[in-house]
Design brief:
- The chain is of the alpha/beta class and about 375 residues long.
- It has 2 domains: about 230 residues, Crotonobetainyl-coa:carnitine coa-transferase, domain 1 (Rossmann fold, 3-Layer(aba) Sandwich); about 90 residues, 2-Layer Sandwich (formyl-coa transferase, domain 3), CATH 3.30.1540.10.
- It starts with 9 loop residues before the first strand and ends with a helix.
- The protein has a 6-stranded parallel beta sheet, with helices on both faces.
């Protein structure tokens, strides 16, 4: 079996919670050696997020930090800072998610670490970035979505609604961090030097609004929740309730798909209302009434073999046993998700359970040349 594609890449993860954790999960799944640098006695806060398994471990932590090693360092101590600088000297990538200026105040900001390792790719994930008037604001996913404009048209005609998935954390932060790291590593191949990567979760979300910004530039009308072609304003692209209280997602944008949809519903006479703005309310009501006559799975069977862009809205329990997700290796029956992206020639592989807090401290510091006695002294002094 070939080695995973990022085998040999050394990553230090100083981040907390979801954005950085997801970024380094992707890197670890693709073969990078990820060492989490955690606070002694507590560690990454996600370790304490319920629900907990029979072993007392957080299910969220187990999923997000698989395949990573853990060491503890008190970065507020001179010895802890010195050890981090030593670790950085051998690292390829460092990921952190403190607010701008925190690492500098600790004495281990980018310029200090760059002096120890000019090849270091330093990835800083923040809510609003390292400059601009919002840089020091506190925030979470919902705030970044709000400031980026995405929340303003997420929801229904009743108004903006909070998405259940942490879009800014995962997409604007975690995925953009991986893109930044891989791009900077590619540049390093040419120049021999690393660089600072300023990853703003708000910037990341805003960059996803390209088609919305393009439409606004032409129309002057900002998108609204429950409106527009892709936001629920058209009957051919929305979610419908079925007789059993479950739902179907309909994405019949193109005429051929809408025609197939109407054929199954027995409503071919509604074809000319497809994209007529004036008829969307009546059209949606007709489709709602039709879907309400059968249960979700009965509709799924009726639509089988018809290219109508109709899909069941599955809950997570259903997804984890879904035949397609299983066939693709994205679920294993025990709640573990597969590795993305899929590289056919050099696939990644899911790592084992994350290390207990600080479990790898002795091994990592031993590789730096510290003796067992020196490590014991550091632990007694509260550095580890």
């Amino acid at each position: 079996m070939s080695e995973p594609p990022l085998t040999g890449l050394q990553v230090l993860d100083l981040s907390r919670l979801l954005p950085g954790g997801y970024a380094t999960l992707l890197l670890a799944d693709l073969g990078a050696d990820v060492v989490k640098v955690e606070e002694p006695g507590r560690g990454d806060g996600i370790r304490w997020f319920p629900p907990f398994g029979a072993d007392g471990e957080s299910g969220m932590h187990q999923a997000l930090n698989r395949g990573k090693r853990s060491i503890t360092l008190d970065l507020r101590t001179p010895q802890g800072r010195d050890l981090l600088i030593e670790l950085t000297a051998a690292a390829d990538v460092l990921v952190e998610s403190y607010r701008p200026g925190v690492m500098d105040r600790l004495g281990i900001g980018y310029e200090v670490l760059r002096a120890a390792n000019p090849r270091l790719v330093y990835v800083a994930i923040t809510g609003y970035g390292y400059d601009g008037p919002y840089r020091d604001l506190a925030g979470h996913d919902i705030d970044y979505l709000a400031h980026a404009g995405a929340l303003s048209f997420t929801g229904s005609l009743a108004g903006p609604g909070q998405p259940g998935l942490q879009i800014a954390d995962i997409g604007g932060g975690g995925m953009m961090a991986v893109i930044a790291a891989m791009t900077a590593l590619r540049v390093r191949e040419r120049t021999g030097e690393g660089q600072f990567c300023d990853v703003s979760m708000t910037d990341g979300v805003l960059s996803w609004l390209s088609i919305h910004a393009g439409a606004f530039a032409v129309s002057g009308e900002p998108p609204r929740p429950g409106g527009g072609l892709l936001g629920g304003g058209y009957a051919c692209y929305r979610v419908y309730a079925c007789a059993d209280g479950r739902h179907l997602a309909v994405g019949a944008l193109e005429p051929k798909f809408f025609a197939a949809l109407l054929a199954v519903l027995g409503l071919p006479q509604l074809m000319d209302a497809h994209l007529d703005p004036a008829r969307q309310g009546d059209l949606a009501a007709r489709l709602e009434a039709a879907f309400a006559t059968r249960g979700r799975d009965e509709w799924v069977q009726l639509f089988a073999g018809h290219d109508a862009c109709v899909a069941p809205v599955l809950d997570l329990g259903e997804v984890l046993v879904d035949r397609h997700a299983t066939a693709r290796g994205m679920v294993d029956g025990a709640g573990r998700l597969g590795v993305v992206p899929r590289l056919v020639g050099t696939p990644g592989r899911a790592g084992g359970p994350p290390s207990a807090l600080g479990a790898d401290t002795d091994a990592v510091l031993g590789a730096l040349g510290r003796t067992t006695e020196q490590i014991a002294e550091l632990r007694a002094a509260g550095v580890l």
